[in-house]
Here is the input.
Amino acid sequence: MAKISPLMVLPPVIFAAFGAMAYMGLGREGANDLESVFIGKPAPDVTTQALPGYPALTRDMLESGEIKLVNFWASWCPPCRAEHPQLLEMQADGLTILSVNFKDKAAQATKYLEDEGNPFAAVAFDPQGRTAIDWGVTAPPETFILDRDGTVLFRYAGPLIGADLEHRFLPALEKAQGE
Here is the structure.
């Protein structure tokens, strides 16, 4: 009978253990949620540089006394384009939407807003993405709900479309508006 070396058995056992840990991790509740470390804390600062031709986003706007959104977007981002009609609709319904255009070119961002419409009360311009890093943004689009004092209530990673919008984002927005 051939003798099996422990070194031959060790790699498949380690691989199986990693596979089991990954499977258990993906199955846990809330595995798809990307919680922000800023929930319940004042919103981080935003660059004072504005997209040329648009109002700058200021700290006073973040703490304006009303519920508002801060949306991180880029003209080159297909999911940002997909959510744009929803942002226009929310703005038409009276919701204040502040924005940070990041890792973009000013001319392309301006043309996009001119062509598609501007739902934003202010447009910060962050071509290096530093403000996005400060807010913990992983990829555009991401939207934050802020309370009347500028405290972050909710973070939504991804486009504001579909069932996820209906089941996660809108209930959080309604809760914020009801407080």
Q: What stands out?
A: The chain has a mean pLDDT of 90. The first helix runs from residue 6 to 26. Helices lie at 6-26, 59-62, 78-92, 106-116, 130-135, 162-178. The two ends are 74 Å apart (CA to CA).
